[in-house]
Write a structure and sequence with these properties.
Layout: E1 6-7, H1 13-22, H2 28-39, H3 53-62, E2 63-64, E3 72-75, E4 81-86, E5 92-100, E6 103-107, E7 111-113, H4 122-125, E8 128-131, H5 134-143, E9 152-155, H6 165-176, E10 188-192, H7 198-205, E11 209-213, H8 219-225, H9 234-241, E12 252-258, H10 266-276, E13 282-287, H11 301-312, E14 317-320
Parallel strand pairs: 1-2, 6-9, 9-10, 10-11, 11-12, 12-13, 13-14
Antiparallel strand pairs: 3-4, 4-5, 5-6, 7-8
Helix pairs in contact: 1-2, 5-6, 10-11
């Protein structure tokens, strides 16, 4: 039965060669499998036409490709699209495609739910349902309608990517390897609250851009917004980041969601500058997207602009991120893995 079969998707080149050898097929079959999976993006083993019929039959007895098709798609008035996918946990996860002029960016999920519990995030409210498999991460890239026109990817969907470090690094390898998608690491950004020591491993093992969810420069205030500040203090996160070189191709940015009369004062702007001084970085200011039953509210745009200008005057670049897909609950912090009608 299909449910007892293993997935080919999510395996790297060495693993695919091992699969081939285990079935009595030549090792070069592994390279052929990688080509079919990650370059031609086939959905079934039968489509792998340069494999003999006997080889395809052997593979089909134990394996499936393993692509998950979307079970719901919503389109925003601004062109953003949100895809809902099934997950082995029994819940569902979401990916978002964001078009912008000549760019098409996919915002991918790495977990069903999240352990981090950030007060301003709908994903965090639902608790942790499980880590996505590597195949489930890569499937998001393949299954969306815009798969062949994607220019960029951000690991900013549901979950904390560095809390699923093994599968996320495996997915990044598939995305950037010559035998995989062959993307430049410069096309990918990973967002994290700063999970230590997984952050060090990510910085050591990839060249992908990093975005840190900061949101408040004062530790006690940040703790009230982000409970994991206790386990992973932002001071320690930045101390680690300052050991790495971000003056070349790789970038680090800091995400700062602005809450009215919570973290939007001149004192916050000045503390943010002090915290990040000496680090080549950018600060992305994000208007809070109000979520149900939250006491938090968005800062007025004038306050956000003044905050940006104060930081820019210090020599650190700050920009205001454009909000996309808010009308379909696809904007920052709004993903919940829910269908328009509740999943059965």
């Amino acid at each position: 039965m299909v449910e007892n079969k293993k997935k080919l998707l999510g395996n790297n080149l060495a693993q695919l060669k091992e699969i081939a050898l285990s079935l009595g097929l030549p090792a070069f079959t592994g390279k052929q499998l990688a080509d079919w999976l990650y370059k031609k993006k086939v959905t079934s083993i039968d489509q792998m036409t340069n494999l003999s019929k006997a080889a395809r039959e052997k593979l089909s007895q134990e394996y499936i490709v393993g692509i998950d098709k979307a079970i719901d798609i919503q389109a925003s008035s601004d062109g953003t699209k949100k895809y809902l996918f099934p997950c082995h946990t029994g819940s569902a996860i979401e990916a978002v495609m964001i078009p912008d002029a000549d760019r098409a960016t996919i915002c991918v999920s790495s977990q069903a739910g999240c352990k981090m519990g950030c007060k301003f995030c709908m994903t965090g409210r639902q608790g942790f349902k499980g880590n996505l498999e590597t195949a489930e991460i890569i499937s998001q890239f393949i299954s969306i309608d815009e798969s062949d026109s994607l220019t960029n990817a951000v690991f900013m969907g549901m979950g904390e990517p560095l809390d699923n470090i093994d599968n996320v690094l495996a997915a990044i390898e598939i995305l950037t390897a010559d035998w995989g998608f062959a993307w430049s690491p410069k096309r990918i950004t990973l967002s994290s609250i700063g999970v230590l020591p997984a952050l060090k491993r990510f910085l050591d093992e990839t060249k992908v851009h990093l975005a840190i969810s900061l949101h408040d420069p004062f530790p006690q205030e940040r703790l009230s917004l982000m409970p994991m500040q206790k386990a992973f203090p932002i001071e320690e996160v930045i101390k680690l980041i300052k050991k790495y070189d971000f003056t070349g191709q790789r970038r680090v940015s800091f995400e700062y969601t602005m809450f009215n009369r919570v973290n939007d004062t001149k004192q916050h702007a000045d503390a943010l500058v002090r915290m990040l001084r000496g680090l080549e970085c950018r600060i992305n200011l994000i208007r809070f997207h109000a979520i149900p039953d939250s006491e938090l509210s968005p800062s007025p745009m004038l306050i956000i602009e003044q905050f940006r200008d104060r930081i820019n005057s210090s020599g650190i670049t700050a920009t205001i991120r454009a909000s996309r897909g808010e009308d379909i609950l696809a904007a920052c912090g709004m993903l919940s893995g829910k269908q328009k009608q509740q999943l059965q």
